[in-house]
Amino acid sequence: MNHIADWDPDFRNHEEVHGLGGPLAGNDDGIAQTVLARLAIRDIPQEVYRSAAS
User: Fold this and answer.
1) Distance between CA atoms of residues 29 and 48, nearest Å
2) What is the pLDDT of residues 17-50, one digit of tens each?
3) How far is CA 26 from CA 31, 36, 46, 50, in A?
4) Residue 4 burial (10 A CB sphere; 0-12, 13-18, 19+)
5) Whole-number Å distance between alpha carbons of 16 and 37
6) How confident is the model at residue 3, as a pLDDT?
7) Residue 35: φ, ψ to 5°
8) What is the DSSP letter of 24?
9) How many whole angstroms separate alpha carbon 51 and alpha carbon 54?
């Protein structure tokens, strides 16, 4: 379904791929902290979710 009425022309999608050195073990909060540290991200994320493996 296309929600063209909700489309925001100022929205920009950005995607980057980063290698994290293999599978990460632990609970979601622990993994999130590991990823943030490895990517040198200091901002606190608003939301964290575990993506399905593909």
Assistant:
1) 8
2) 999 888 888 888 899 999 999 999 999 888 888 8
3) 6, 14, 20, 11
4) exposed
5) 17
6) 64
7) -65, -45
8) -
9) 9
